[in-house]
Input
Amino acid sequence: MNQSGQTIDVTELYAFAQETILKLGHEALAFYGKRHQKPLFDQDLVTQTELLLNKTFLDIISMSYPHHQIYGQSSLDDGYTHGGKRYLWIFDPLDGVDNFQSGIPVWGMSLALYENYWPVLGAFYMPATDDLFRACAGKPAFLNDHVIQVDDRGSVTRGSLLLTFSRFHQYYRCPFPGKIRDFGSTGAHACYVAMGRASAAFAANEAFKDLAAVNVIIESAGGKIFKIDGSDFFPGDHIDGQRITDHLMIAGTSNAAPVLGSLQPVG
Output
């Protein structure tokens, strides 16, 4: 869409999203791993970084697509809209803040675009490793220039990898036959599932902006986000900003049953 509010080809928006998230990622690297020795978690560093990235993103959108809405900055209208307001950008500046501030490379940022409450595209960039995961809805998912696809063989083995959230074992016993790991970034976990490196990932305490982009990527790679009972989960149901209370699983459709079957709730 151009500045007069006329429709823009999604290819232009897709290229813009990639260029923008790469620029923001390079800016974030200036702060990466710069935590002061005390305290162990440097909130000032994280806040400073997030403020800068959010401001830069706002400036980029205001200059390029001033009629578009930005999640968290615009009042979402009920129903469908026309012109520029039909587009909503969702930007999450830091996913994996503990890793970011302590110099561990598993962290990233996400950018998604919705059109009248429907996902159009998603990107997740990991600046420390220069890995850009991206997809347009209904089209293949990519890691940089390579097409990626979930592992959806419908079984788990000793060689399988399951990614989990912090304190996962306080909620579940899991006689999963393979390896269980937590790398500290839900977005990275989702993308590792999308590229077939992990059989599934569990997530908790998420919000709409955390999942908007990676949901496009995982679905384009042949996977889905499920609730813990195996039913489908739709991030758009939480666009109002309410915290997501469900525990979630990210996996291929055939892998969902065997992975969920290995869970045993504690208590």
